[in-house]
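One-letter codes give the sequence; each number marks local geometry. A record appears below:


***
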Amino acid sequence: PVCNMSSVERKGFLSSSEASLLSVGDVSASLNADLFNGLSCEEAKRRLKVFGPNEFTIANDEPLWKKYLCQFKDPMIVLLLVSALVSMAMGQYDDSLSITVAIVIVVTVAFVQEYRSERSLEALKQLVPHRCHCLREGITRDFLASELVPGDCVYVTVGDRVPADLRLVEAVDLEVDESSFTGETDPVRKNTVQLKSSGGNGTPLSERKNIGFMGTLVCRGRGKGVVINTGENSEFGEVFKMMQGEDAPKTPLQKSMDRLGKQLSFYSFCIIGAIMFVGWLQHRRLLDMFTIGVSLAVAAIPEGLPIVVTVTLALGVMRMASRNAIVKRLPTVETLGCATVICSDKTGTLTQNEMTVKFLYAANEDEAQVTGVGYNDAGDVICNGRKVTGLSHPSLLKVVEVGLRD
């Protein structure tokens, strides 16, 4: 029989946090899954149209020539280009050629290095297996993992990568290596036990023992699970979307180079203007004075500085790459040198160094949850399902007062 899609279309899919708190039967019912026969091929095709393929979509890359031209936006490069054109106009072809060669070297090195590093984004797709073992119409089939949909039943065994987020329904001595996802180096032993709700934002990823995360590696045992999330809706998909997010702010080195470029431009125009003004007072030819001013301004521009900076950063990127650290942008290497303290947990995962309160416990056994993330005023204090306001909960207010005094 064809499964009813009404509830699954309303919900779309189950998050791993939600699925970990549900029993196997509840998950199966929520996704209209059949644990014994699997989905029908017709139903799977319908769901594939609704949810899309189980793969990551990389935004269309800009053409290479456009990426190359973007390297010329740097203020220092623009200043060097102007000085090269002015030198050529004044007949100083040797200076113009040397500056142009310097620009080409700088731009090419930066472009090649960043192009190679950006391929790391596509490398994430290699963590998603191409094929998997799925139960369809009562038969275990071997087909493309990209065709998986929520509600499919998948079998995994030693050496397999989990093809999608799974709510495990069978786990026989099942251990999974989640180091590529959570940072934990030891394999995690999986089970099918329903977790108890702890309130707040759900259980941490590392405690969801009944969930198999997309991209993780099965290193022991075997298991069976119901697909709850696919593609970019999976937990691993969230990591992928973060890597495709907004560009990071400029590094200290970029800010310094931009400031230097603007200052040199300003001083160059001041020199040209001052010399032309003095020449005008002395009744000399303005063209001669302009030529002298431009020559001095061009001489003040350190055309070798961008080369030294770019080559130094490129060497730093190569050294980090030899230690399996991928750097997407050259100036990012310098940012590490500006760090005085790096906060990490026992797995080496970097944090934001923002320790925040999540729960409040009062002497009269009142318990409140504090929502929000990070150092900001976005969030509320919830006690027994109600928002704490003013003096509504004196016991909790006392807790806050004691904390502030300490």
